[in-house]
Design brief:
α2 crosses α4, α5 crosses α16 and α8 packs antiparallel against α15. 74% of the residues lie in helices and 0% in strands. It has 395 residues and is mostly helical. The longest helix is centred in the first third of the chain and has 42 residues. It is built from 17 helices and no strands. It starts with 10 loop residues before the first helix and ends in a 7-residue tail after the last helix. About 7% of the residues have low confidence. It has one domain.
Amino acid sequence: MSTGPQLPVPIAEIARQWGRIGTIGFGGPPAHVSLLREMCVDRRGWIGARQFEDAIAATNLLPGPASTQLAIFCAWRLRGALGAVVGGLCFIGPGLVLILALAALFLTGTPPAWLRGAGAGAGAAVAVVAVDAGARLILPTWRRVGARQRPRVVAYAALGAIAAATLGPWLVLVLLACGAAETVGRRAAPRGRATPPGRLGSLHPGALLLSAGTAASAGGLAALSWTALKVGALSYGGGFVIIPLMQADVVRNGWMTDGEFLNAVALGQVTPGPVTHTVAVVGYAAAALPGGLLAATLAFAPSFAFILIGADRFDRLIADRTVRAFLDGAGPAAVGAILGSSIPLALALEEPWQWAVLAGAAVMMLAGRRGVVLTLLVAGAAGAAVGLAGGPLPI
């Protein structure tokens, strides 16, 4: 992989193209990767196919929203740090504005019954979305690893699932412990080139985040900051792991009810851009618009930092044995956490009709192989119909 930006693409063009993808990027990471590849590789020829594939591999090794980091990296390749910042903000911005507007609609005042029903219906399907997301992630991991490593993958995934279902805010410690266990377990194996001190190794956020977590026990903005930082810097295994990382904090601190949190996750799925936008709804519930902006800033800041500090070392990151070992432990645990989060998500449902919506969503996604956005829209429509008919709605 090349070690620096190559093409002097105008900043205005980066802003326009990355803003376009941020506006039409429904469907999560697969859609984002496809749109970026079409623009940067196929249509414009800004980035070589091999360089783009290497960038996907490197960003998937980093914690945080991988498709967001890929968007930031592609912009960095064209215009360095300025391009990365502009491209990243334009990619994130449209969905963030939309989801904050929806948060204000759902969380301020008294929305009409049909809108409350739509949120409750879409929220009822979220547990199935979690199962589908976890299954899509665990199968490639299972196929990739060898027979000797598979028992450890099962163990890490099981620990993550149990922690997500039972431990709540302490899930982060389980993710770190699984990564550390895999790293220690491979120390006896032959090592590749060591990572220079102060470079890739310094990017790992674990110790900093644990210190922040201690400070966050005071509550208020410190607790919100800790929750958002966890989302941005410890979401190994894809964007959906933010759900178990946030849910217990949200309810424990009184920012949202379980039902409102389900609505927030659904909003993050049906709006364009990364599902990490969900954290902005949590921030809005905690401290109105300033809280939403603070949460979004802290959740996305690690992605910008990883690219701005380490993009020219991605080739080294891909080959680094320690990084791979840590993520081979933390990654399956995070996927297990996604699967495990479906239990508290389902238990949060309050009305019998929501369980019927959940069953219908399971048929659509798991048997019918329908997409996330379509499933949530159908579930939301069913909930809206219940609201219009005067049916019972969650408090």
